[in-house]
Amino acid sequence: MDFIQSIDWMQLLRCFVVGGLICIIGQVLIDKTKLTPARILVIFVTAGAILGGLGIYKYVIDFAGAGATVPLLGFGANLAKGAIEGVKEQGLLGAFIGGVRASSGGIAAAVFFGYIASLIAKPKIKKQ
Amino acid sequence: MEHIGMQTIKFENPPTILETASIVGPKEAQGPMAKYFDQCIEDEFWGEKSWEKAESKFVKETVSTLINKSGISVQDIDYCFAGDLLNQCISSSFGLRELNIPFFGVFGACSTFVESMCLGSIFVGSGAAKNVMCATSSHFCSAEKQFRFPLELGNQRPPTSQWTVTGSGAAILSASGEGPYITHITPGKIVDMGIKDANNMGAAMAPAALDTLITHFKDTGRKPSYYDAIITGDLGHIGKEILTELAETKGYNIKSNYNDCGVLMFDKESQDTHSGGSGCGCIGTIFSGYFFKQLKDNKLNRILLIATGALMNSTSTQQGESIPGIAHAISIEI
Fold first, then answer.
1. How many CB atoms lie within 10 A of CB B48?
2. Global pTM?
3. Domain span at B38
4. ipTM of the shown complex
């Protein structure tokens, strides 16, 4: 019960709304433009890196938590943040090392769980 | 055999379409045409390890069904014309490799079935062969993988996109027989109107269909009303509308007797296939399953079958090239 009482419901709502809004942007881009999903992915990561690098995205993260860090924008912001920290620690070389180091957990987890999924799942025909 | 007009060949000894066969996949089995096919397979893998192997199996089993139904032996089939959508036409060559019939691989994208029948009918009509077989196939999963995105990506299909038919259709053309006869063929030109969207093939191919349609009427002196049915494959809902409008602006009213195999294959409302069916297998199975029987039962006496193809590949799409379209027509009469 302590756990349920400790949940900040407003935080959950902010997370849901912001995460949902980011996904709506993606859906509109798929439906209304000729952009392929791969290009939309790159646009999101790049936009996140720019917003993160300019220091804007951290306000979104403070506001929405995982609603801002989990979507691709958060990955881009994380790359930028890591690169900036890397420069502070190691100089120019850090710009190349820092970004990937900061997001290494996400990258390794994606490869790991992707591999597991490929072992246990089989692709199927689409329903629609 | 005589060349008439710009592009058309008229047969003095028109080849008979002796027999046809068709096998389709699970989505097609839920569609309005299901009852006309020889077999509907519920598993898109058909027990195989890959979609490519499954597609080859569709070809192999369809051809085997065809030969059984036709009552003629494999040795009596002189040549085989077949093609599909996969790189280097592997569905056809792998599916037919144990058949021991001289083989011509044909690539005409979704126009392959009619292109094969054009070539086959020339072989039969000229006396070079007594019986030839024409076959084609496509598979939703293998086509998505090759032309669009891997299914594992789970991306959404845009509203203009068409659904590649899983299935195989095949026909035997014969020098002797009592019809339906292939009386004319009008092979088409490549027409490129600059459409670049691989998810809107109907719009890319409609101008090619129009070109072949008009050329056929001019060459033969016929009017749209001569035919009980004018059938394209596979412009889908969007392409069908475009072709109907384009034909009207050129003075040919095809509204009353025109339909498209991509439109016929699925129920648009309940099956959510967006703009309809496509793929070599679409016109291949619908002609083999439905229209051939309609001709045999004298419910239709004269049809013009126009197969359209989009002559692009995944590299040309990635490099931003436009999509050249083509359309081949055959006139089939009782």
1. 15
2. 0.88
3. 2-174
4. 0.74
